[in-house]
Amino acid sequence: MEHPEAGKHDSSTLSAFDTALRDSHSNKASIEKLEIMPGFSRLLDLADELILGVIEQIEESNDLCTFALTCSRLQSLVEPFIYRSILIRAGSQAVDLVMSIKARPVRASAVQTLGIRYVFDFEHDIETLNLVLMDFRNLRHLTIESPCLNNGPWRNGDRNWESRCRIDYYTLFEAASLRLPYSTPRAIPLLQSIVLHAHGDGDSAFTLGKNAIMFLHPTVRSITISCSDITDNLFTSDLFRGHEHSTPLTNLVFDECNISAFGLQALLSLPRALKRLTLGERLYHFHYPPCIPLGNNCEHFMAALYTQHESLEYIKHIGSRNWLSDNPDLSTNILHYFYNLRTLELGPHSVLRKYLVADEFPGNLESLRLLSNYVHYHNPAQGLTIYTHLRSPRVDWSGIVAAVLSKYNHVKEVDIILGQAFTQMSQGFDLDLLHSLWQTKEQRDDVYQAAKPLRARGTRFKLFAEHFLGGRVFIPPYLYGEDVPQELLVYDSEDPNLFGSVRYTEDDTENIESSGVLDDEPENQESIDPADLGAKVLGFL
């Protein structure tokens, strides 16, 4: 997160609203004149189906708006394309949209994608949208992104929090939920996806609470929620009672959320067959968490996951680094019952990594992806470095590779992703620095020790590095206008002597033994005081 550029509006959207308003109030006479102009006769002689084919080839919104102004017949054909996808970045745009819909209500039925993504500088009047939200009968995709408490003047306590989300999405989702009588017409009855980043007031600024009613929408298949607290109260609430295994949700993403195991279990009890689950716990936020991390409540974490064990194909877990136990209770591992699980993606603090080493995983697991705590650029004098926490990052990686070699013959690919941790410098690195790391033979050997035995066993090994193409680093969730990190391939065991763009000689791997994977827990492992956390030259994972 960081602020998008202040005042950055979507000009095409504004043009569309301006066109609609001009047409509604002052352009009727000029349109009638255009209808009889000879230049339009041949086009207007075509059937509507052919004209629609022409309209579909027009990509620019401004061109669509100009086309709509030519005559009333073309306007009726073009407007559904103009209003099909709407982005609102400011309160003034919200007012324009509401006025245009009130002037011609049929326009609301054309809206299929609505993004409400505003910053605090331009939030005045954004709540005007509440007047028409119920009118979007054909809406498929809804994104609500209100100002983030982690950004702006509130972060340092210079101002009291005053930018709670002004969009009344609770009322909207309540009017669409399964809790309504079957015969009652529902709002937004065709909705397919929800992306929500919104804060409330005071102590409830982050609590999902009653807003979890969105999980009872009868047609939604994908939900993404960021910067929220998923608390135990959901487990004891009457909100979901009687609706277990009743929704079509197949994809659920939590990004930068405090997630209680009981709250997670309540939400996972609702889908009939969830296929993809992303559990991104809090890493970067400053407020005190209201629940313990999932990794410190293993029994109930496993119970929550088990509610979808028959259908889950993909699990990603970015575990919280708060209070993480060195010796979690691993006796409740039930992941070997996840018969359809194909891909696991695990952060460095995920307790599932310990399960992976200690126990069995499903026989159908094909892809294992491991994220690391790689620091992109800490100090100009030190170059690329990595933070070392309580134990060497190489230990976890080596232990998991050993587990794959000894127990998981069915795994087809192991990926390591070197992530860019957030630093105060917010400065990305030059790609030449990344590639220069592999000039050191010792660092290449660390890769070879995993890649060579895996490749010999038929498992592909890849090493990626996250990179922000714009050079500026952001932290999740990635809001409007922020770069999303791209994964750049550093190494692929299919071409074993190539690191980045540099190819090394064939004898570079001669001294690497196939059994050269490091022990999981070396006896002389150095312990580092958390108070003295520093940066150390790359010793990834």
Automatic annotation (TrEMBL):
InterPro entries: LRR_dom_sf (IPR032675). Residues 509-528 are annotated as: Disordered. This is F-box domain-containing protein.
